[in-house]
Amino acid sequence: MVGRMGALALAAAIAAGGWVGQAAADDDTVVVGAAIALSGFVAPYDDPHKGAILAIEDVNAAGGVLGKQIEFVTADTKSDPAQGANAAIEVLEQGAELVLVTCDFDFGSPAAITAQSRGKIAFSLCAGDPKFGVQGIGDLAFSMGIGTPAEGAIMAEWAHAQGWTKPFIFKDTQVEYTKKLADYFQARWEDGLGTVAGHDTFNGQTDTSAAGQITRIKESDADFIAFTGAAGVGGAPIIKQIRAAGVDLPIIGGVAVDGVYWLDAVPNLSEFYNVNYSSLHGDDPIEGVQDFWAKYEERFGPAIVGFSVTGYAIIEAWTRAVERAGTFEAKAVALELEKFVKEPLLSGDTTYTSEWHINFDTPLMITQVQNGVRSGIGRFAASKVPPVDF
User: Fold this and answer.
1) 37 and 85 in a common domain
2) Which tens digit of pLDDT belongs to each residue from 324-341?
3) CA gyration radius for the chain?
4) Torsion angles phi and psi, residue 184, rounded to 5
5) Does residue 390 sit within a domain?
6) Is residue 11 a contact partner of residue 17, using CB atoms and an 8 Å limit?
7) Sign of CA dihedral 50, 55, 56, 61
8) Is the pLDDT confidence value at 282 over 90?
9) What are the tens digits of pLDDT across the range 210-250?
10) Residue 215, domain extent
11) Together in a domain, 88 and 235
12) Are 286 and 298 in contact (CB under 8 A)?
């Protein structure tokens, strides 16, 4: 289902004229490339590239950046990290000064490393692993995602604020993001919030049954579940099994379980919560977000995930840094990005430093699913973020 949706989204974007198949920079244009998953199971997580298209259209309508119109080119990784480098080369050879890459360290880093090696800025749509940046790729790599230490802390502190006291941590081991999100949730929870009732693991890419883990949830005295899986990558079937087994405990998850595209797989799901970069349901408090979603629906049809605002925010961030640097030269642009302190972007106030090219203090939206319907609750920031531990 996810692969089909990715293909349909690609077809819709092509039909809407949002894609430039071949382009090369000239005196009047500058190229932005996207080496991302346009097909396959990761495609829903790279939906933020559509937000980038909307931002590029707005920038061009306002006169462009440094007097140049932005052209947008793409290459499909087909949800295969091994194709990431080739996809990056494809857009770089078309003149890309900025390369957008997949919303995950494991899947996006091959393309980012290639851009770094060519001396170009790479921006992940929303990778949460803190290694996405100076530590794991290089000084030209940035993410519009929030780091997993902060994401896990927000999940823990918000759950604690609901009066929940005993989490069962259900950790997905498929990628660094899902593993580290569980670890940082636990670190924050055990730092003065309470004790853990139990924990277990699964692999969203390979495990089809969680019967044993669900038995252990039932045997624990947990009053909620901290779930770190990705809905479109095996998470939805696991959530369905939890509810089918009669476990009706509240579940809180991360950004990777946002969206409406998977809810039909778990009919009448309730008491399900997650953090995200925005709410697409008309109740986000950040100015401009509701207008963004109205434009998105007019341009691409109904949205399937709420984190597409990060693509728009990347173009906001990059064009501002370019204008302040007065050049497209990557190192100069990176230095300007490193000066961002609570820079107001569509996805929230954003801070980068020379040490960290990922956010740690942006408030996230809390959304809920009740009776199969998703809605926003409000934005929440963590008061304390665990230290990064690689």
Assistant:
1) yes
2) 999 999 999 999 999 999
3) 20
4) -75, -35
5) no
6) no
7) positive
8) no
9) 999 999 999 999 999 999 999 888 999 999 999 999 999 99
10) 148-276+364-380
11) no
12) no
